[in-house]
Amino acid sequence: PPAAMERAVVRCVPSEPKLSLRFVLPDGSARHMQRDQAEPLGRALARIATNAAKGHAKAGKKSKKARAEGGAEGEAAVPAVRLFSRDGAAVAEEVPNAAAWQDGAVLHIGDARYRVERNPPALTELRLPRSLLAGFPVCPKVSAEFAAPQHCLFRWFREQRPAGGGDAAGEAWVETAEAERVFTPSNALVGLRLKLRCTPGDGEQRYGPAREVESSGPVEAGPGACTFDARHLYTKKVCGHGSVRAVSYNILADTYAQTEFSRTVLYPYCAPYALEIDYRQNLLKKELAGYSADLICLQEVDKSVFVDSLAPALDAFGLEGLFRIKEKQHEGLATFYRRDKFSLLSQHDIAFSEALLSEPLHKELCEQLAKYPLVQEKVLQRSSVLQVLVLQSTTDPHRKLCVANTHLYWHPKGGNIRLIQIAVAMSHIKHVACDLYPNIPVIFCGDFNSTPSSGTYSFISSGSIAEDHEDWVSNGEEERCSMSLSHPFKLLSACGEPAYTNYVGGFHGCLDYIFIDKNALEVEQVIPLPSHEEVTTHQALPSVSHPSDHIALICDLKWK
């Protein structure tokens, strides 16, 4: 068949009752038809024929001359429409549409010939981030059907600089040498916009129509040195298969960073532009990508940040992400794992308040809590959640891992509330790592909003807490609730007890931890935290060179 054959694009997926058919008639008019998948081909062909004739008639009506000459243009003959399979045999009219329209078949409409493309790779979304900084990776959001981002082709262009400083006539684009999914603009591109051309592919040498997207603004100058640059020197490579690099990080939700209160009271020392989400996302994506981590547990993740920014960016760096929103809020938890090291066996997320009320597992705790209605009410009002994943090593299927991630209640006087939350968390993790998957090692990351001197920290590390611990009366006698709690794990804070993991104008302290199972895992190395000098260069956090008010914890662990 001639190479210049027109395309008839068919989209046919089992989950939808109809298939769609798109083609352009010889007169240039585009046709988009939806037909039942089970309908016999003959009826679809007849419909195409009348459709084509209508198109022809319309074209005829447009021509006054033709009408004046009394021609029969308006009553166009219905063209013969047939479908031939790849081997040249006519497809029988009783064959259902779903089976008839195969890739490579040829559709005849009168004298016109169309090659059928069934489910060709197609881009459904192609977006560039709003803010581009020199020296920071630009990660497009790519969504595709019958294709995968890792098999797509990428070509990056930059604006041509106007010659002689005047306005360039028309837009001229110059192709850059970059052909990867992630593009890091150099300082030479400051002031210029970028354009990406993406061709969707399915990894089987099939490619669909390319799409282009231009950046909304030009590349801007980056901040220079960031707090994480020195840390990246320790994490240039992904660690070996016997090791796991884990990161825990509260990334400061946009929901909280951009309030009037945040700007004027919490972070008055931070330049307003450095609190903006687009700016912080640039820093965050570079920071996280540079840790070459196998597990990343994040807290305070805005839903849109996960969907539009972090998931697409970290996907490009080999990480698969899962998100759990806090009910009633726009932020939640995200856990990412390296695809070529782990596969996901199961997920066991809970909201503490819900689990406490509905799961038999927590019946005893729930009954104890009922004796303290004031505290019970507070616990049940909280929307805090716990994310739990069971992962399996891709190289050694015997190696499984229970990864938990949480963000506990924040109030300084809420120690008793946090104790109840952590009791629920430990019971739930025990259910997963002892009952469902007997004896699998636990890694428990999060912002526990608890310093090393707290009841919560003591409970996690020692395995029990007495009913006379001072944290049971953290908010005064009327909210005392005393109970003794225990859990069976031997947990250790892998990064120890740093002076602080949260450093803001009015407070600094150690609130974040990566707890590991002492019996099964040991610490290979802890990536040093930024120096006090770096943290305080701009007074406190966040700053132009650090995207959050917390500091990421990073450690390399290995199986014992």
Automatic annotation (TrEMBL):
Bias (Basic residues): 55-65
Compartments in which it is found: Mitochondrion matrix
GO biological process: mRNA processing; nuclear-transcribed mRNA catabolic process, deadenylation-dependent decay
Molecular-function GO terms, alphabetical: metal ion binding; poly(A)-specific ribonuclease activity
Region (Disordered): 52-71
Gene3D superfamilies named among the record's database cross-references: Endonuclease/exonuclease/phosphatase (3.60.10.10)
Top-rank taxon: Eukaryota
GO terms for cellular component: mitochondrial matrix
Pfam families registered for this protein in UniProt: Exo_endo_phos (PF03372), PDE12-like_N (PF21171)
Occurrences of domain Endonuclease/exonuclease/phosphatase (ranges): 248-550
2',5'-phosphodiesterase 12-like N-terminal domain segment(s): 120-220
Keyword DNA repair attached: no
Family of the protein in this entry: Belongs to the CCR4/nocturin family.
Listed name of the protein: 2',5'-phosphodiesterase 12
